[in-house]
Design goal:
The chain is built from five helices and ten strands. By secondary structure, the chain is α+β, with helices and mostly antiparallel strands. It has a six-stranded antiparallel β-sheet with strand order 1-2-3-10-5-8. Strands 4-9-6-7 form a four-stranded antiparallel β-sheet, with no helix packed on it. Strand 6 and strand 7 form a beta hairpin. The longest helix has 20 residues.
Protein backbone atom coordinates (compact mmCIF):
# COMPACT_ATOMS: atom_id res chain seq x y z
CA UNK A 1 0.00 0.00 0.00
CA UNK A 2 2.85 2.39 0.81
CA UNK A 3 4.46 1.74 -2.62
CA UNK A 4 1.14 2.51 -4.33
CA UNK A 5 0.75 5.77 -2.39
CA UNK A 6 4.33 6.77 -3.22
CA UNK A 7 3.79 5.97 -6.91
CA UNK A 8 0.59 8.04 -6.94
CA UNK A 9 2.42 10.98 -5.32
CA UNK A 10 5.10 10.74 -8.02
CA UNK A 11 2.46 10.72 -10.80
CA UNK A 12 0.67 13.65 -9.15
CA UNK A 13 3.86 15.70 -8.96
CA UNK A 14 4.89 14.84 -12.54
CA UNK A 15 1.47 15.60 -14.07
CA UNK A 16 1.28 18.96 -12.34
CA UNK A 17 4.87 19.87 -13.26
CA UNK A 18 4.36 18.86 -16.91
CA UNK A 19 1.06 20.78 -17.08
CA UNK A 20 2.70 23.92 -15.70
CA UNK A 21 5.72 23.55 -18.06
CA UNK A 22 3.26 23.27 -20.96
CA UNK A 23 1.47 26.43 -19.76
CA UNK A 24 -1.88 24.64 -19.49
CA UNK A 25 -4.66 25.23 -17.00
CA UNK A 26 -6.50 22.27 -15.51
CA UNK A 27 -9.44 23.12 -17.77
CA UNK A 28 -7.31 23.18 -20.93
CA UNK A 29 -5.51 19.93 -20.11
CA UNK A 30 -8.87 18.35 -19.28
CA UNK A 31 -10.32 19.41 -22.64
CA UNK A 32 -7.30 18.41 -24.72
CA UNK A 33 -6.72 15.05 -23.01
CA UNK A 34 -10.44 14.24 -22.71
CA UNK A 35 -10.06 13.59 -18.98
CA UNK A 36 -12.54 15.13 -16.56
CA UNK A 37 -11.37 18.16 -14.61
CA UNK A 38 -12.41 16.44 -11.38
CA UNK A 39 -10.20 13.45 -12.18
CA UNK A 40 -7.27 15.80 -12.91
CA UNK A 41 -7.77 17.73 -9.68
CA UNK A 42 -7.84 14.44 -7.76
CA UNK A 43 -4.79 13.14 -9.62
CA UNK A 44 -2.77 16.27 -8.88
CA UNK A 45 -3.70 15.81 -5.19
CA UNK A 46 -2.47 12.18 -5.35
CA UNK A 47 -6.00 10.84 -5.05
CA UNK A 48 -7.74 8.30 -7.23
CA UNK A 49 -6.46 5.46 -9.37
CA UNK A 50 -5.74 6.57 -12.96
CA UNK A 51 -5.94 3.79 -15.54
CA UNK A 52 -3.55 3.20 -18.43
CA UNK A 53 -5.81 4.93 -20.99
CA UNK A 54 -5.93 8.08 -18.83
CA UNK A 55 -2.15 8.12 -18.36
CA UNK A 56 -1.60 7.64 -22.12
CA UNK A 57 -4.00 10.50 -22.98
CA UNK A 58 -2.30 12.82 -20.47
CA UNK A 59 1.21 11.88 -21.66
CA UNK A 60 0.27 12.34 -25.32
CA UNK A 61 -1.33 15.71 -24.62
CA UNK A 62 1.65 16.88 -22.56
CA UNK A 63 4.11 15.58 -25.18
CA UNK A 64 5.93 13.26 -22.77
CA UNK A 65 6.16 9.52 -22.15
CA UNK A 66 3.89 7.60 -19.81
CA UNK A 67 6.89 6.65 -17.71
CA UNK A 68 7.89 10.33 -17.46
CA UNK A 69 4.63 10.67 -15.52
CA UNK A 70 5.46 7.69 -13.33
CA UNK A 71 9.20 7.79 -12.65
CA UNK A 72 11.15 9.77 -10.12
CA UNK A 73 14.62 11.13 -10.75
CA UNK A 74 17.06 8.69 -12.36
CA UNK A 75 19.36 6.99 -9.87
CA UNK A 76 22.46 6.79 -12.03
CA UNK A 77 23.93 6.08 -15.45
CA UNK A 78 22.63 2.51 -15.65
CA UNK A 79 19.13 1.42 -14.70
CA UNK A 80 18.30 -2.24 -14.28
CA UNK A 81 14.59 -2.91 -13.82
CA UNK A 82 13.12 -6.25 -12.79
CA UNK A 83 9.64 -7.08 -14.11
CA UNK A 84 8.42 -8.06 -10.65
CA UNK A 85 9.44 -4.63 -9.32
CA UNK A 86 7.07 -2.88 -11.75
CA UNK A 87 3.31 -3.00 -11.19
CA UNK A 88 1.17 -3.73 -14.25
CA UNK A 89 -0.49 -0.65 -15.74
CA UNK A 90 -3.17 -2.82 -17.31
CA UNK A 91 -4.56 -6.19 -16.32
CA UNK A 92 -7.19 -8.07 -18.26
CA UNK A 93 -9.98 -10.22 -16.89
CA UNK A 94 -8.24 -13.40 -18.10
CA UNK A 95 -4.83 -12.57 -16.62
CA UNK A 96 -3.24 -10.51 -19.39
CA UNK A 97 -1.07 -7.60 -18.30
CA UNK A 98 1.15 -4.77 -19.52
CA UNK A 99 4.13 -3.44 -17.57
CA UNK A 100 5.99 -0.28 -18.51
CA UNK A 101 9.55 -1.28 -17.66
CA UNK A 102 11.33 2.01 -18.39
CA UNK A 103 11.70 4.92 -20.76
CA UNK A 104 15.01 5.96 -22.25
CA UNK A 105 16.13 9.55 -21.90
CA UNK A 106 17.05 11.94 -24.66
CA UNK A 107 15.26 14.04 -27.25
CA UNK A 108 13.26 11.07 -28.68
CA UNK A 109 12.56 8.75 -25.73
CA UNK A 110 11.58 5.10 -26.14
CA UNK A 111 9.23 3.29 -23.75
CA UNK A 112 9.96 -0.42 -23.17
CA UNK A 113 6.94 -2.56 -22.23
CA UNK A 114 6.50 -6.23 -21.30
CA UNK A 115 3.11 -7.70 -22.23
CA UNK A 116 1.38 -10.98 -21.49
CA UNK A 117 -1.72 -11.65 -23.57
CA UNK A 118 -3.97 -14.58 -22.78
CA UNK A 119 -5.80 -16.27 -25.69
CA UNK A 120 -8.67 -14.12 -27.05
CA UNK A 121 -8.02 -11.29 -24.57
CA UNK A 122 -7.36 -7.90 -26.10
CA UNK A 123 -6.34 -4.37 -25.29
CA UNK A 124 -7.66 -1.64 -27.60
CA UNK A 125 -5.47 1.49 -27.68
CA UNK A 126 -6.57 4.90 -28.81
CA UNK A 127 -4.39 6.60 -31.44
CA UNK A 128 -1.28 8.34 -30.11
CA UNK A 129 0.08 11.70 -31.19
CA UNK A 130 1.61 11.90 -34.67
CA UNK A 131 5.19 10.65 -34.91
CA UNK A 132 4.79 7.80 -32.36
CA UNK A 133 6.10 4.47 -33.71
CA UNK A 134 5.31 1.18 -31.96
CA UNK A 135 7.21 -2.09 -32.36
CA UNK A 136 6.09 -5.46 -30.99
CA UNK A 137 8.39 -8.49 -30.76
CA UNK A 138 6.65 -11.74 -29.82
CA UNK A 139 8.91 -13.96 -27.71
CA UNK A 140 6.43 -16.82 -27.23
CA UNK A 141 2.92 -17.62 -28.39
CA UNK A 142 0.96 -15.70 -31.00
CA UNK A 143 -0.92 -12.44 -31.19
CA UNK A 144 -3.13 -10.56 -33.58
CA UNK A 145 -2.19 -6.94 -34.10
CA UNK A 146 -5.06 -4.84 -35.42
CA UNK A 147 -4.04 -1.48 -36.91
CA UNK A 148 -6.71 0.77 -38.39
CA UNK A 149 -9.05 -2.22 -38.73
CA UNK A 150 -6.58 -4.54 -40.54
CA UNK A 151 -5.50 -7.73 -38.69
CA UNK A 152 -1.90 -8.95 -38.73
CA UNK A 153 -0.77 -12.28 -37.22
CA UNK A 154 2.52 -11.99 -35.30
CA UNK A 155 4.10 -15.20 -33.99
CA UNK A 156 7.02 -16.09 -31.74
CA UNK A 157 10.24 -14.85 -33.33
CA UNK A 158 8.48 -12.17 -35.38
CA UNK A 159 8.52 -8.40 -34.96
CA UNK A 160 6.04 -5.87 -36.33
CA UNK A 161 6.18 -2.09 -36.38
CA UNK A 162 3.55 0.55 -37.16
CA UNK A 163 2.70 4.22 -36.79
CA UNK A 164 0.85 4.61 -33.50
CA UNK A 165 -1.41 7.46 -34.66
CA UNK A 166 -4.06 4.99 -35.89
CA UNK A 167 -6.45 2.98 -33.68
CA UNK A 168 -4.76 -0.29 -32.71
CA UNK A 169 -5.47 -3.40 -30.66
CA UNK A 170 -3.31 -6.19 -29.25
CA UNK A 171 -5.06 -9.59 -29.00
CA UNK A 172 -3.79 -12.94 -27.76
CA UNK A 173 -4.20 -15.67 -30.41
CA UNK A 174 -3.95 -19.44 -30.44
CA UNK A 175 -4.13 -21.64 -27.35
CA UNK A 176 -1.15 -20.48 -25.30
CA UNK A 177 -0.16 -17.27 -23.57
CA UNK A 178 1.58 -14.72 -25.78
CA UNK A 179 4.59 -12.86 -24.34
CA UNK A 180 5.92 -9.82 -26.14
CA UNK A 181 8.20 -6.84 -25.76
CA UNK A 182 6.78 -3.60 -27.09
CA UNK A 183 8.62 -0.36 -27.65
CA UNK A 184 6.97 2.99 -28.15
CA UNK A 185 9.25 5.51 -29.84
CA UNK A 186 8.11 9.02 -29.07
CA UNK A 187 8.75 11.94 -31.41
CA UNK A 188 11.50 14.36 -30.41
CA UNK A 189 10.33 16.86 -27.84
CA UNK A 190 11.13 20.54 -27.78
CA UNK A 191 14.78 21.42 -27.28
CA UNK A 192 15.60 22.23 -23.64
CA UNK A 193 15.81 25.92 -22.83
CA UNK A 194 19.35 27.18 -22.32
Amino acid sequence: MTETAAALRTVAHNVRAARIRAGLTLEELSRRAQVSKGALVGLEKAQGNPNLATLVRLADTLGISVSALMQGSPAGRVRVVSADAVAPLWTGERGSEARLMLTTSGPAPVEVWRWRLEPDEEYPSHPHQGGVVETVSVTSGRMTLVVDGAEHAVEAGQTATFDGDAPHTYRGSGTETCHLIMTVQLPPGPAPAS
